[in-house]
């Protein structure tokens, strides 16, 4: 992810002034060009040579490094989850707000043009009153017992894996598109592979299912999995209202499905017909596909614009990261107790 961040930063006009890794040789191997290699992240943050730090480390390091950077007066882009628990994530959001510093989280699916189109259509009332929000985020990269990763270790990845890693993206997207908040959840989690190549006893979930209610009274359901064969990054969000439905599939990001009682159609990303809200995120002519890199580039560009004092609509900040952490904590509590849990 460091290379993805660095590419986007350069495209936004930034200079990669320095890089730090778990060891200096790891930092040199990162392939970030002529950037200065610091002996540690602490040295980089305290160097006085940077104005924004990208934190792309394992999860357990997000909070200490981000808090140190904020204390040093630096802007921050920090991968999610912000912290290993909701209270620390809330603390981080508060520190950023108190200091008046730019601090953002890569909920980059917000930056698909067709997501912005969906959000605009719901805001102007095209679907009527939202009644149902449902979908999934499915992967297969941890399908087999010999698949393993540091995220499986709760000491490094945190108490939640699948939901914190990808369910957080879905919930952020659902709340962003509908401008409605999930207020209570009823969840189940399961470990499908009880042992992995380097982990003798897996305790973090492979799959999670969540029912939820929103502040407006809509109900919903979400399925997340990192063990669904053939699914790579299948994030599907479908929203039904009293007048129409719409659906976005991240693996087919050029399309937005629109459904009515009298029929349905797929709207193609075309700058000639998109709303004003979607146009800034649709720089290419219709038929020239945009994807994940474009979203990430737009997210970083908007973060750097905020650093220059410009306001960009929909930029995900630490408050949004803390929100995701609160939902995740409620999901784990509900799965543990078998009860509806507020978030």
TrEMBL record:
InterPro entries: Gfo/Idh/MocA-like_OxRdtase_N, Gfo/Idh/MocA_oxidrdct_glycsds, GFO_IDH_MocA-like_dom, NAD(P)-bd_dom_sf. Pfam families: GFO_IDH_MocA (PF01408), GFO_IDH_MocA_C3 (PF22725). It comes from the Bacteria. This is Putative dehydrogenase. GO terms for molecular function: nucleotide binding; oxidoreductase activity. Residues 2-105 form the Gfo/Idh/MocA-like oxidoreductase N-terminal domain. Keywords: Oxidoreductase. Residues 115-246 form the GFO/IDH/MocA-like oxidoreductase domain.
């Amino acid at each position: 992810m460091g290379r993805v961040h660095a590419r986007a930063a350069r495209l936004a006009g930034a200079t990669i002034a320095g890089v730090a890794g778990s060891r200096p040789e790891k930092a040199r191997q990162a392939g970030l060009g002529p950037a200065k290699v610091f002996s540690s992240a602490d040295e980089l943050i305290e160097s006085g040579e940077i104005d924004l730090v990208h934190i792309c480390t394992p999860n357990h390091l997000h909070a200490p490094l981000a808090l140190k950077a904020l204390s040093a007066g630096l802007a921050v882009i920090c991968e999610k989850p912000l912290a290993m628990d909701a209270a620390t994530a809330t603390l981080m959001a508060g520190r950023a707000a108190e200091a008046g510093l730019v601090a953002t989280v890569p909920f980059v699916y917000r930056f698909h043009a067709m997501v912005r189109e969906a959000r605009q259509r719901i805001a102007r009332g095209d679907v009527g009153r939202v009644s149902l929000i449902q979908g999934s985020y499915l992967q297969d990269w941890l399908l087999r017992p010999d698949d393993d990763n540091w995220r499986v270790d709760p000491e490094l990845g945190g108490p939640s894996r699948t939901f914190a890693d990808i369910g957080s993206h879905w919930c952020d997207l659902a709340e962003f598109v509908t401008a409605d908040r999930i207020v209570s959840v009823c969840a189940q989690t399961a470990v499908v592979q009880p042992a992995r190549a380097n982990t003798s006893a897996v305790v973090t979930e492979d799959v999670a299912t969540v029912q939820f209610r929103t502040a407006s009274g809509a109900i919903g359901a979400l399925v997340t999995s990192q063990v669904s064969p053939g699914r790579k990054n299948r994030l599907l969000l479908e929203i039904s209202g009293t007048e129409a439905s719409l659906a976005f599939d991240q693996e087919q990001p050029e399309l937005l499905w629109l459904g009515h009682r009298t029929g349905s159609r797929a709207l193609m990303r075309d700058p000639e017909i998109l709303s004003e809200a979607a146009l800034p995120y649709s720089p290419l002519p219709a038929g020239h596909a945009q994807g994940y890199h474009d979203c990430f580039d737009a997210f970083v560009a908007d973060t750097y614009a905020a650093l220059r004092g410009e306001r960009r609509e929909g930029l995900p900040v630490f408050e949004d990261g803390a929100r995701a952490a609160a939902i995740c904590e409620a999901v784990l509590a509900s799965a543990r107790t078998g009860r509806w849990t507020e978030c």
